[in-house]
Amino acid sequence: SIAKVRKSVKNYLNQFLNTSTTGKSRNSIHFSLEKGNIYYDKSKFVMGLKYGPIRALQVFLNKFQLEKGLKVVGTTNTIQKLNLLFPQDLDVPEVEYAYIQALRIYHWQQFEAKNGRDANLQIQPGILTSIIDPIYQFISKQAKNIEHSES
Q: Against a cut of 0.90, is the pTM above it?
């Protein structure tokens, strides 16, 4: 049923938002906001920024489409979806930049691991925060807007 799908999507989003603030999911530590460490070990399902900000934004956009009954025809690209769904939002460029940075790090880690190299990374904690925060704040703000428009 549509209600089950909605509940499932909401649970996934909450999981990914939680990971965005803690760096953890289940028994895995994906990153440390305090130290700036971003971990990657596919065999242990440690996926760096994938299960935090990357999936949070992707799932949020899908949830938004589902809630509003909107179709974004012909695009699966997250950046395009973001711009089509929120064309007037002034936070979008910062969210876009943060998402692209998260993807770059994630794809670099994937590449390193695939080539048998250590894919763990350490960056300045402030830089890591500047990647995660805009995505987290945007989703939080939009979620509140959705709730207010429905009540």
A: yes
